[in-house]
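User: Here's a chain of 253 residues. Predict its fold as tokens.
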Amino acid sequence: MFLPKFLYGIYENRIARTLPHDSVPRHVGVILDGNRRWAKSFGEPAAAGHQRGADKISDFLDWSEELGVEVVTLWMLSTDNLRRQPEELDPLLKIIEAAVAQLAAAKKWRLRVVGKLDLLPDWLAQSLTAHQENTNSVDGLQVNVAIGYGGRYEIADAVKAMLQEQCDRGLTLDQAVENVSVEAISSHLYTKGQPDPELVIRTSGEQRLGGFLLWQSAQSEFYFCEAYWPDFRRVDYLRALRAFSTRERRLGR
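Assistant: Prediction complete.
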């Protein structure tokens, strides 16, 4: 049933007022899904959906800061996405580069690029690295932009980096293997030094992770939203946080 905009505003404010502030997650991961289907529903090309989805990101980050979230990880491009046809992939890469450039130019958020940059075109990898460096001194919300990201790749890279570190210290293979631990691998993940995500949101109604933060999400709560990412509203975010606040987090106990 259609509700006038002002009624949604009342409903949204009510959720915000009743949301326990001490239960807001420190780290929220988001799978930005549904851009192509959003575009298709309007008879538009995929690029229109990707652009609309990119335009939504700044709003989401503003909401996160207002609510007290400290870290946000946005899955903008998976390693699987890199296999899309050039007629869709090329415009998508340009949209992503422009979106990250806009986030960096705002000087409001500290960016960290997470993903397999070596799988990306050189021009994009270099641009993303430069935008990250330009926000290193920003004291604000930590924003991980996951581009060319796959959870299995991340774990493999972490293990490689850990073993290489042991090798550089002059340890034998047997000694290096003895030092393999959960903590050692965690310290070499793309998100090292950050809290694991307490809440992972996926839009578009799909109920699967698809490889997102596989290691870090072992004890995360998941929230699947029916809205396509371009249609994701602040009230949808508040609903996700409300659902999170009602769950009893056992954390494996």
